[in-house]
Design a protein that fits this description.
Elements: H1 10-28, E1 33-34, H2 35-42, H3 46-58, E2 62-67, E3 77-81, E4 87-93, E5 97-104, E6 109-116, H4 122-137, E7 141-148, E8 151-152, E9 157-160, E10 165-168, H5 170-178, E11 182-186, H6 187-197, E12 205-211, E13 215-221, E14 224-225, H7 258-262, H8 264-268, H9 278-286, H10 290-311, E15 315-319, H11 326-337, E16 349-351, H12 360-371, H13 377-383
Parallel strand pairs: 4-7, 7-11, 12-15, 15-16
Antiparallel strand pairs: 1-3, 2-3, 4-5, 5-6, 8-9, 9-10, 12-13, 13-14
Helix pairs in contact: 1-3, 2-3, 6-12, 10-11
């Protein structure tokens, strides 16, 4: 697609770069952008802009819309994202279940399926589901984003304790079945991508922390992931933050890990699981013990202050089912982080914006990988509205 490698063909590379610029302008102003607007924004000639638009229309990426408001001369034709053809497959893998969504180019989910399996039947069930999607939608699927718990380099699952996978070349396996590029995305990274997408022009470092059955983090820089050279950035759950009598036993076998104090299992009790729906988590949160919430906030605040002193992020965002803890926990966390450490700046802490669809992060990663563009916040919000 538009992000393919042109090798030494400089002319083709420039053409593709201009196509991406034009397409991004339509994505950012779908329904109001025009050929003349693209020419002005890119500095290209009107003829070149029209040529780019013609190719994007032929590729079924954009469509002509209604006429724009008159500015004194002939009214221009507006351009919109073509949501009628190309699709992105998003597969969210959990230990005993998966969520499958087909996402249109406007970000809307047009088909949602759920899959249940056991660890023993997981591989066969996932493969069969992808074969079914390929048979039904064929070449309309231009890419897939596969979201999962564990570390990944985008091609292989390096390690996933929850799934029992290590060094599994999952992208290659799924590409052979789907016939389209596949990108693997860590689940916390996907959340961070979706969160960054809710801001028009994200700038600087943002620290995203997921609190669920475990604790994980992701770092974005100007809206893009900063994964680190070994794809291990954000693995903070088993860093020791509590010592002595305060150190709780962790499921990893050690004591005092961040997860043992700040995961939702620690905050809400053993009854919590990541499989719970929002209503069940919210009900548990109402009865949460003040002492557990306070201990979790203190432990998490230590990690936040240290990471913030190192990165100087613009903000810290708490995501995952922890957003259902409400103001009670957030106020405790803000109180624990609200002290001045010499040489550092105060960093705001807030909950994640949860208005995007469950598919938004992995779909955005796949969209950027194949087309080199991003959805606007308005598109992500509109896509989450039940309209199809």
């Amino acid at each position: 697609m538009l992000n393919s490698d042109d090798g030494l063909d400089t002319q083709a590379s420039v053409r593709r770069a201009n196509l991406r610029r034009a397409l991004q302008l339509v994505f950012r102003s779908s329904g109001t952008q025009t050929r003349a607007g693209i020419a002005r924004a890119t500095g290209l000639t009107a003829a070149t802009a029209s040529s780019l638009v013609a190719e994007l229309i032929e590729s079924r990426l954009i469509v002509d819309g209604e006429q724009a408001a008159s500015t004194g001369g002939k009214r221009a034709t507006t351009l919109s994202v073509d949501a009628s053809h190309h699709l992105i497959l998003v597969l969210v893998i959990q230990p005993t279940s998966a969520r499958i969504a087909l996402v249109a180019l406007d970000g809307a989910e047009i088909d949602i399926r759920r899959l249940a399996y056991t660890p023993e039947t997981r591989d066969a069930a996932l493969d069969a589901a992808i074969v079914d999607v390929a048979a039904e939608y064929g070449s309309r699927v231009i890419a897939a984003g596969v979201q999962l718990p564990g570390t990944t380099d985008g091609r292989s699952v390096l390690e996933s304790v929850q799934l029992g996978w290590q060094d599994v070349p999952l992208a290659d396996r799924f590409e052979a079945l789907l016939g389209a590029p596949v990108l693997l995305v860590n689940d916390v990274d996907a959340e961070a991508i979706a969160e960054a997408g809710m801001e028009e022009s994200p700038a600087g470092y943002r620290l995203f922390i997921h609190l669920g059955g475990g604790v994980g983090a992701a770092i974005t820089l100007d809206g893009d992931l900063a994964p680190g050279p070994r794809d291990r950035a954000g693995e903070i759950g088993h860093v020791q933050v509590e010592f002595g009598d305060a150190a709780r036993e962790c499921r990893c076998g050690r004591h005092g890990c961040l997860e043992s104090s700040a995961s939702l299992s620690a905050l809400l009790g053993a009854e919590f699981t990541d499989a719970m729906d929002a209503d069940a988590v919210a009900a548990l949160a109402v009865t949460a013990d003040d002492a557990d919430l306070g201990a979790g906030a203190r432990a998490l605040a230590r990690a936040i202050k240290l990471i913030s002193a190192l990165l100087d992020p613009t903000e810290v965002v708490i995501g995952g089912p922890a957003t259902l803890l409400g103001d009670r926990f957030l106020a405790l966390l803000q109180q624990e982080t609200d002290y001045h450490a010499s040489g550092t700046a105060a960093v705001p802490v807030r909950y994640a914006d949860t208005r995007a669809t469950e598919s938004a992060g992995a779909a955005q990663a796949a969209l950027t990988a194949v087309l080199g563009v991003r959805w606007s916040p308005a598109q992500l919000i509109a896509a989450a509205r039940p309209s199809r």
